[in-house]
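Example 9 (inverse folding). The structure is encoded as follows.
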């Protein structure tokens, strides 16, 4: 059935450029499937623009990444307009991007998380707030934006007085050595486990989106029990936050224990992204993945 789908992309977060690539890929695929597609490079008048569209969109494909696009803001607006949209709803989106809150909920659900503390920016500037090595993260950014690893022997502070434009609070968590793993959840189905390696030594923003920035091994070479547990924990995390549609869980495995790092409710759909790769591994072509997401679009009642 042909639909009118508005594809939201771009915006003004730190992940704008990646969002444009995701949105372009989705728009192209939906057009090939015979849908009427209205691509929208999101500005702050998005609500007024959507209400002026004729015919009214049957669904919104939310290809935004980062703040405002996956933190509940856009979701709340689409709820008020009663336009079905892809991915998670307002509450799940807000919980997932708030890393400290998500970790609290994961721990309550029995999902292992790394030791962590939430501190003021000024506390990090005065010295180590936990034993090294540790990881410094913004509390509400995606795609590893602003993530720093502080190791033994580093002589400098994590950041300077002027080098942290990402809010007054900082999440500091114990660095977990070992394998970087990720799992796509599609509805109630975890698709596969991928191990990610990068010559940069850390799966940062550049490693995620630059061609050749990282290597993906799918399926990850793990003992079956560990592989199955990664699938189970990822689905449990998706359900714990109340996610819907497609999400992607990021985990670390130190050889003995799996640790949940975070859930991405708006994972990338670029040519180097993990979700399309895992879908293809379980014989779900990109077009079928996108079509499923549109068919399962809904808004919060």
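The amino acid assigned to each position is listed next.
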């Amino acid at each position: 059935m042909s639909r009118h789908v508005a594809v939201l992309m771009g915006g003004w977060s730190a992940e704008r450029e990646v969002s444009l690539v995701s949105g372009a890929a989705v728009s192209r695929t939906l057009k090939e499937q015979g849908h009427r597609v209205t691509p929208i490079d999101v500005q702050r008048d998005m609500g007024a623009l959507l209400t002026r569209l004729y015919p009214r969109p049957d669904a919104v494909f939310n290809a935004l990444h980062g703040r405002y696009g996956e933190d509940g803001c856009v979701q709340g607006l689409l709820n008020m307009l009663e336009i079905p949209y892809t991915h998670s709803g307002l509450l799940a989106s807000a919980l997932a991007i708030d890393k400290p809150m998500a970790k609290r909920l994961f721990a309550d659900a029995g999902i292992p998380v790394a030791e962590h503390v939430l501190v003021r920016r000024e506390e990090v500037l005065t010295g180590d707030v936990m034993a090294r090595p540790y990881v410094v993260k913004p509390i509400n950014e995606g795609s590893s934006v602003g993530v720093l690893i502080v190791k033994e022997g580093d002589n400098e502070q994590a950041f300077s007085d002027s080098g942290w434009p990402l809010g007054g609070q900082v999440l500091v968590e114990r660095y977990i050595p070992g394998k970087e793993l990720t799992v796509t959840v599609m509805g109630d189905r975890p698709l596969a486990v991928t191990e990610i390696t990068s010559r940069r030594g850390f799966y940062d923003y550049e490693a995620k989106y630059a061609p050749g920035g990282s290597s993906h091994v799918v399926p990850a070479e793990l003992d079956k029990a560990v592989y199955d547990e990664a699938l189970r924990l990822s689905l449990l995390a998706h359900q714990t936050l109340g996610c819907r549609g497609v999400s992607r869980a990021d985990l670390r495995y130190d050889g003995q224990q799996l640790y949940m790092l975070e859930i991405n409710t708006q994972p990338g759909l670029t040519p180097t992204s993990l979700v399309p790769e895992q879908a293809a591994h379980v014989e779900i072509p990109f077009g079928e993945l996108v079509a499923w997401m549109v068919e399962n679009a809904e808004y919060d009642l």
